[in-house]
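Bench log, entry 3. Co-assembly request; chain sequences pasted below exactly as received.
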Amino acid sequence: MSIEKSSHSGEHRELGGSAGLPERFENPGLEPHRHRLADSDPKRAKRSERQIALIFTISILASIAGVVGYAVFPVDIDRASVLNVRWSTLVVGLGLGIGMLGIGVAAVQWARALMDDGEKIEDRHPMSAGPAAHQQSLEILRQGADEANIARRPVLKGAIAGALALAPLPFLVPLIGNLGADWDISKFKRTAWAPREDGSGDPERFFEGTYRYLARDPQDTKIRAADVTNGNIVHVIPHGLPEEEHYLEEKAKAVVLLVRVDPSILKEAPERADWSYDGIVAYSKICTHVGCPVALYEQQTHHVLCPCHQSTFDITDAAKVVFGPAKRALPQLPIKVDPEGYLYAAADFDEPVGPSYWQRER
Amino acid sequence: MTSTTTSAATTEQAVPAPVAATVDYLDRRVGLGFAIRGLARKLFPDHWSFLLGEIALYSFIVLILSGIFLTMFFVPSMAEVHYPENALPVTMQGVEMSEAFASTLNLSFHVRGGLLMRQIHHWAALMFVGSMVVHMLRVFFTGAFRKPRELNWVVGFTMLVLSLLAGLTGYSLPDDVLSGNGLRITDGVVRSIPIIGAYMSYMVFGGEFPGTEVIPRMFTLHILLIPGLILALLALHLFLVFWQKHTQYPGPGRTDKNVVGYPLLPVYTAKAGGFFFIVFGVLALMGATMSINSVWNYGPFDPALVSAGAQPDWYMLFLEGSLRLMPGQTEFVILGWTLSLNVLIPAVVVPGLLFTFLGAYPFVENAITKDVGEHHVLDRPRNAATRTALGTAFLSVFFVLLVTGANDLVATHFGLSLNAITLVLRVLIFVLPVVVFIVTKRVCLSLQRKDREVVLHGHETGIVRRTADGRFYEVHKPLDEYERWVRVGHHVYRPLELPPREDARGVRRPGGRADGIRTRLSRFFFEDRVEPVTPAELAAAQSHGEHDELPAAPEGSSAAELAGTRGTSH
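Structure output for the full assembly:
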């Protein structure tokens, strides 16, 4: 009966008859105030006062202790120790914390125990200034518009709108225009693995001055194919990259994972048959989802996993996605070995590494 | 003026002369008298939940103070340096790193109180966003956003969004491995925006990721632009709270036309002022004793490194979870253009929808109720069943995202399959809000019915009596009028009933379609409802339920017992 499950209600309220009873209950007004013991017992009030004074005193002592802690535990570069750092943090912090907390607790206790605790009533006034003021405001606005003569000058209206719209541009265009440096997003498509076709590369770092050697991250040492053992994962950077300009930007695109798996379980597309060497495959370490390094390798399943959002890629199957929010496989780096057995990159990635963007395939 | 104060205060203590003189000085120059008269005795209702917003305010002040300390020693530069060989910590000696990271280490280890301030700053940031969110939930569930406070809701909402940006930009500054990966994810998300994404990435980083611009830029946003905006909005927020006066919980004597509470001077000054010191004190104790974001354990940013099991600050966790939840199949290439819905939906659309719901809710509800009056007495959440249910459903989505953001920790702690957890959560994000909505709504309606029952039949006392003819009954203690009022005083909305869309001659009424939608929404909101007890119903219940009434007068002892139970129940 009390739940109404219909949209046309209205009559239901009549029940119970109306023997002079009001339709609804009426607000009974404030409950009678109940006094605290401290209001009538001066002893109790005195005790509260002492309590509060004690808390303030604790605060004072703590603040002093904090300043003393600052002086007692030096952390200057020639006298510092981890222990001093710890003690300094703790003592200064406790001093500050207890000093502040003491003031707060004492003040609130003061308000609770000793200040007048009678609730008071104040009237509210409607937010609106009222219909008369409303009329008046409209009249004022109309008068302002009249005096400005806006209504009869449409050309002026258009002109001022146009001027206001355009005036910020000489500010905004340089501001935003400069933010993106050269705006050359084609850089996304090229990495430090790109062969130096003119043969100008340092022969130490580039095979035949053209093809970049693979190197361990962070030691920057060349990698012999024979040293890459089955089931191992090697984190790879282009050889010599740490000494080059824009190291971090280049590294952020060029890091590679090197894994050797049993060639018999390696599923390779015919056009990529010569991209691996004797079961060794190299894939971009940058996740195709939002760009975290894909850092976790599971030996048993030959899956690599991105710890950020758990996209999982199958190394034996062209690093295709087997789980998670990424769509695309990790780009593969074509690798070869030089006569001494060192691995080098035969070409750059054939697609942009890392997260997708609108113009990615253009 | 001074003389009248002193002469009038013969019975009470006089205002000390220097105070009186200062007031007089300021009054003659800036009209301080108006302010004192208007504000000093202004009343504020008292309730613990009104402190939530104060926690946010005070955390923000602590953030500014500790932040000023940090700016004195932090160097927002991405120039590469080698960390000194004689500086702490030992693991970082001679390591190549950015100046930002080096100065973060230096201020943690070689500035007295520096680590303390860093930790206070970080804890205060977590507390700031946390208390804002809980404050917002309080405002939501009690309907404090209703007319006339919709605009202040929007102000608060904007501050929440800004505080998330403040958190994101601040978290990125130390340039450690974790913050660098945070920026990298930001880069990935920005790139997914159709057409301009790649250019926006260039705009953020001043070229390719990570570049050398992003930390100085984030620094400026973090210490100047964002806190400046928050400060301005904060002033507006507080001004509106003063101007519109605070809401109050329903209770005897409280109406939409009054405020019941304690005056600003002295009670609220002591309580709110004291509370600032409490919040500051607690944050300082946290900074002193609880280590947070020990960046030297992660090391300087290196784009090839990442640490497993790393979670962002809690307020960004839902975004992380959202990214993890989305299946990857939703990236498409259309005519050669790549549309990366697998990133765009979880990182842009989902938060967009969640925030739109939050920001727009007061206006949607107002459009449905077509309410014109001012509301200053809060709703008890149970009495706004549909709103409460919508709120909890919203929260359930948020919690699913939070759990997803920590799914790797759930997997390792409970020995579960990560993939299975993620698949289950992919279903839950759709199912759970529906279930939670239905359950919450039923619970609210049940609580309302319980209110009716208590009003009609009184509280159970646990006293069982036997009548002279051998019947047993339990004595119920009727509610006094103050206790009853809380349960019967609320307004019950009914679904709108609008005229039909077509008139008698089949002519369509203008605006008929919008009204139709509004009617349906209104029915969704208010179709199920429980009416509060009317005086007539109470009278009827008392006339036919004799055994529920107070025992008759001759049993003098029972009256005393009942008085006793009344005392304990309060």
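Residues 206 and 295 of chain A are 26 Å apart (CA to CA). The mean pLDDT of chain A is 90.
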